[in-house]
Amino acid sequence: MKRAFEVSTVIDRPIAAVWRELTDWERAPRWMKGVESMHADPGTEVGATLVFRARGKTRKSGISALEPGRSLTLTSEQGNVTARYSYVLEGAGDRTRARLTADVEVRGFPWTLLGPLIRAAIRRTDSRQLADFRAVAEAGGPR
């Protein structure tokens, strides 16, 4: 897999509150650009499937790695393109450092030729995701 982007930010909320917001799938459209709705089946655990509606189409992503309260990796496959989004949280008192990396693999002709364009499109669309998440998390409920 090749890196599409990596971003980080500091969120003025304790790690437990940030984790709750990150894994509240019903609220994810508030910070995931282009996502209209989302739910998890059966919940937040490795192997769970996230079903979401984006740009008028139903899509799926799976939780492929999880360290509850600390990190989460979502993996999606669309034809010959696999994208892996990894969220990592590190808490320090009432603040949390959050990091998001997006890695993309493309397979087969002509997809391998289009790989740089696909990664650039993902970077353009999703690299603001963590900043949008921070705004939602900081506006959230009780600490």
Walk me through the structure.
Pfam families: Polyketide_cyc2. This is Polyketide cyclase. It comes from Acrocarpospora macrocephala. The chain is of the alpha+beta class. Helix content is 24%, strand content 46%. It has helices at residues 15-22, 111-126, 129-138, and strands spanning 2-11, 35-41, 49-54, 57-67, 71-78, 81-92, 95-106. A seven-stranded antiparallel beta sheet has the order 1-7-6-5-4-3-2. β2 and β3 (49-54) form a beta hairpin. The longest helix is centred in the last third of the chain and has 16 residues, at 111-126. The termini are far apart.
Residue share in β-strands = over 45%
Average of pLDDT: 95
Low-confidence runs? none
Specify the structural class. Answer: alpha+beta
Pfam families: Polyketide_cyc2 (PF10604)
Organism: Acrocarpospora macrocephala
Protein name: Polyketide cyclase
InterPro entries: Polyketide_cyclase/dehydratase (IPR019587), START-like_dom_sf (IPR023393)
Any chance you could write out the topology, listing elements then pairs?
Elements: E1 2-11, H1 15-22, E2 35-41, E3 49-54, E4 57-67, E5 71-78, E6 81-92, E7 95-106, H2 111-126, H3 129-138
Antiparallel strand pairs: 1-7, 2-3, 3-4, 4-5, 5-6, 6-7
Organism: Acrocarpospora macrocephala
Protein name: Polyketide cyclase
InterPro entries: Polyketide_cyclase/dehydratase, START-like_dom_sf
